[in-house]
Each structure stands twice: as C-alpha cells, then as structure tokens.
Amino acid sequence: MTESSYGVQAEGIDTDDVTIAYIGGGSREWAPKFFRDLAISDLSGEVRLHDIDHESAERNAEFGNWVQDRDEVEAEWEYEAVADRDEALDGADAVVLSTQYNPAETFVHDLDIPKEHGIYGAVAATIGPGGIFRAMRTIPVYREFAASIREQCPDAWVFNFTNPVHFVTRALYDEYPDINAVGFCHEVLWTRHHLAKIVEEELGEEAARSDISVNVKGINHFTWIDEARYKGRDLWPLLEDLVDTDRANREFTPEDLEDDSPFTDKQQVTWELFRRFGVFPAAGDRHLVEYATSFLVGGKEGLNRWGVKRTTSDYRAKHWNPAESEQTTDVEAWMNGEREFELFHSNEIFDDMMMALAGEDTMVANVNMPNEGQVTDIEDGAVVETNAVIREGEIKPTTAGGFPRPVRSMINGHVDTIESIIEASRTGDIDEAFAGFLLDQQVRTLQTEEAREMFAELVAAEEEYLQGWDLDGSDVLAEADAYDA
Questions:
Q1: Do 260 and 386 meet the contact criterion of CB atoms below 8 Å apart?
Q2: Which of 3, 90, 169, 245 yields a CA-CA distance of 20 to 30 A from 471?
Q3: Are 125 and 131 in contact, with CB atoms under 8 Å apart?
Q4: Pairwise CA distance, residues 471 & 485, whole Å
C-alpha cells in the first residue's frame, strides 16, 4: 500500500469535547446506530441534530439522551435538536450528513417510471435514471450545506453517508473546494466480510473482516479490488480457482427468490465480472447490475437468473414507517419499554475514525474523495473510492492504480454522466442535465425521444423536490408531451 501525496488535513479532535452537527438528524435508520456507537465509544461531547422535519430531530434527541442514561454507558454526550441549520453548524468539529426526502413521494417514481419504459433496475438509488434523479434532488441541497459549512465551520471534518455518494460528495467539493469531506459506504466492508467467509469455508480457518486487506479502487457501488490478503496471505490464487466451481456458477429462477429479501446477495454477478475481466468487484450484486447494465437485460427473469431481486417501490414507500419496515427503527418502542433495548456496536466506523483523527490510533478505511491521482485511469476531480490512511488531523488516500481497459471504459462512462450532472447543477440548466442523462448506460437502451419522455415524466412526478433547477427555461421539457409547463 502506497500513500498518496494529497488528502485532507485539519486540526485534530479533542476526544473529551467533540461538537458534532448532524444534518438529517431526524434519521430513522442510521441515527439510532450512531447514538449507540457513541455511547460506548471513547468520545464525549455534544450532538446538534438538525432536520427539516424538526419533530423527528426532537424525537431522536430525546432518544439519544435516553441512551445516555443507560447504566452501561461511560461516554458523556448531550443531544439537542436545533431548528436553525447555521446554528447547528456553528463551530462544529465534525459534520454528519445523512438525509433523504420522503421515499413515498420520490423514490417510488425513480423505480416505477423507468420500469414503464422497459428499464428494470434493481435499486435505482445511485445511477441509472432513478439514481440520476435522486442526485438531481440532492445536489442543490448539498451545495447549500457546503456553503453553510464554509461560513460556520470551515475546518470541520465532514462525513457524508447520503446516496448517491459519488454525486453528493462531488457536489460538496464543487461548491467548497477546501472542504474536508469524505463519503462513506458499506459495500467494501461487506466485500471484506464475504472474503472472510470464503476463507472460513474454503480454507477451514477462522476469519473476520478485520483479517482481510484489499486494494480497492473505482467509484462508489462500482468498486473493484486487484489484491486481497488474509493476514498477509495472498487470496488471489484461491479466488481464481473458485471461478470454475459450483460456488461461482449458480443460476436462479423467480420462484427460487420468492421468499428472499432483495438484500440477499448470491454473489453470482460478482463472480461473472471477475471471470470476464480479471478484477474482483467490491460491491453487492444489486448495485453492480446498475453499472454493468447487461445484467438488466431480460427484465425480472434476466435479473433473477443472477440471484438479484428488485427492490420494489412498495418496499421503498414503507421505508419511513417503523410498523411496516424492518430497516426503520422505532426508537419510541425502546423508550416506552415495548421493545427490549440492547447496547452494542453497529460495526460502523465513524467513532473509530474520530479516534484516529484525534491521534489515538491509525487506521485504514475505504473513503470517497476527489481523484488527485490515487486512481490513474479516472479524470482528476471526479470522486473515487479507495483506501485511505486516517491518523491525527489527516485523511490521506492511498495510490490504487488503474484498471483493465474494459473496466476502465465502463467506469469512465459513469464518471462522464456524474460530471455532466454536476456541471449542469452549477446553473440549474435542466437541458444540460438531460444531455448527461442521455449518457447513462441504462438510458442509452432507449431511443432519444422515449428517453426525453421518461425524463419529463420523472420531472413532473418529482417537481416539488427539484429545487434549484430551471424547469421553466427548459427546451427539452417544452418539447415533451409528458410535462405540462
């Protein structure tokens, strides 16, 4: 592993007095994990929760302080819901960004409208027509966040957990180039877990995620590894041997997957891409198919053949309701005693990173940051995902190298889409955004006129959330039958 000569640097963290501004502090999924992790960390301080849904932020503040009253808690944290964003950010040491609009009013359209045009996406969250519209909803807001951070806490460490990570992190830097921001995702962590499981099952040795080291590179949800080691032992020969085994050559039918969660990963897309291109994907199959789009051909049967099950719009619509969604945490049930509360670590790495930035440790983690040479085959400035060394006052990406030509071609096509949307967002030019939309590898399966109508339908369905875009001045929307200007 070679460290790069670039990265972000700022003052270290005082572990006994940390001020965290949590934008999106009404979070229904990540915030409860975050509060529990802090409670059993070696950090103490205050967390200011800001959300446009202030009532949700207040409920989470109540829950955070309730967690602090548990007997087993040693860390000292205070939680407060703050209605004014600038007040929440004022002087913060760290900023957490974790936001999403109501999926019943947004995400469902990202899934359903492209499906009506023959695009049977698996997730529609970070690329493809749905992922692009999620980005278009989010980028203008994150430009505002970056501008506020520049004014209120310019030296703060900024941790983005919001999808689409590559679009959003890129928008933060585009608005405020000196921001100390990193984007995070679980996918590489799960790949390391997958490799640890292979070690256990194929080599008969006990292995944990922490025993696995990889050289990771790419863009978020389309990351790849070309080195993998278990406690220093090279795993590449084992992976190459497994390509021809039953483990890597399974097929499925819709009936086989009927009772599966869409989050169940059969890894068959992973093995097929490794078989064809010689580098190992480091993201779940449900995300990979959105970038390697040939796997989407054939609709439900074509997708299910690889063991991938589509996330439905009905599932997304219920995501905010604890009574209907297993992913959504009902903190009130804990506080009211209706559900037993347990305090344990979530396996997120935020608190570990904060300790490293404070100088208490040095760690390596996968992060999303602008490319300054850490990935040789991707243009400078584009947000890429690689490992980084994190230590006192510094996050320094490692030099990861490049790709075989076919993989490089696929990645750079998506980078062109991302960069086109970012450029369009600077002025809110919706026609320029449509030009970037046409570059997307899923959209390119359509004739341009049908792509225009799909684009216009998505705009019409989500217009309320497309703040910052000049819809009235668009020639593309004026041409479309699906949009009533």
A1: no
A2: 169
A3: yes
A4: 8
Instruction: Decide if domain 18-101+124-185+343-397 falls under CATH 3.90.1820.10.
Output: yes
**Cβ–Cβ under 8 Å, residues 37 and 351:** yes
Task: Show which residues are catalytic.
Answer: 186
DSSP 91-107: T-SEEEE-----TTTTH
Q: Which residues, at least 6 apart from 441, have a Cβ–Cβ distance to it below 8 Å?
A: 128, 291, 293, 410, 413, 414
Beta bridge partners of 80: 48
Residues in the chain, overall count: 485
Question: Token pair of 391, please?
Answer: 């230590």
Tokens of 331: 């903190």
Q: Are 153 and 179 in contact (CB under 8 A)?
A: no
291-300 pLDDT per residue, tens: 999 999 999 9
Q: In the chain, how many H helices and how many E strands?
A: 18, 15
Q: Return the C-alpha torsion angle 365, 282, 131, 23, nearest 10.
A: -20
Domain boundaries, the chain: 18-101+124-185+343-397
pLDDT in tens, 409-434: 999 999 999 999 999 999 999 999 99
List b or e across 245-256, with b for residues whose CB sees 16 or more CB atoms inside 10 angstroms: eeebeeebeeee
Pairing of strands 94-97, 157-160: parallel
Q: Mind listing the pLDDT tens digit for each residue in 8-44?
A: 656 668 899 999 999 999 887 888 889 999 999 999 9
Two tokens, residue 311: 């996330």
Cβ neighbour number for residue 324 with a 10 Å cutoff: 12
Sign for the CA dihedral angle at 352, 353, 354, 358 comes to positive
Instruction: State the Cα–Cα distance between residues 303 and 282, nearest whole angstrom.
Output: 19
Amino acid at 25: G
411 φ/ψ angles, rounded to the nearest 5 degrees: -65, -45
> Rounded to an integer, what distance in angstroms lies between the CA atom of residue 141 and that of residue 47?
21
Tokens of 471: 């819809």
Find out whether 138 and 168 touch, Cβ atoms under 8 Å: yes
Tell me how far apart the alpha carbons of residues 217 and 403 are, in angstroms, rounded to a whole number.
9
Amino acid at residue number 269: V
For residues 119 and 114, what is the distance between their CA atoms, to the nearest angstrom? 5
Q: 180 near 347, Cβ under 8 Å?
A: no
* Residue 29 near residue 329 (C-beta atoms within 8 A): yes
Burial class of 391 by CB neighbour count within 10 A (0 to 12, 13 to 18, 19+):
middle
322-360 confidence digits (pLDDT tens): 555 565 678 888 899 888 888 888 888 899 999 999 999
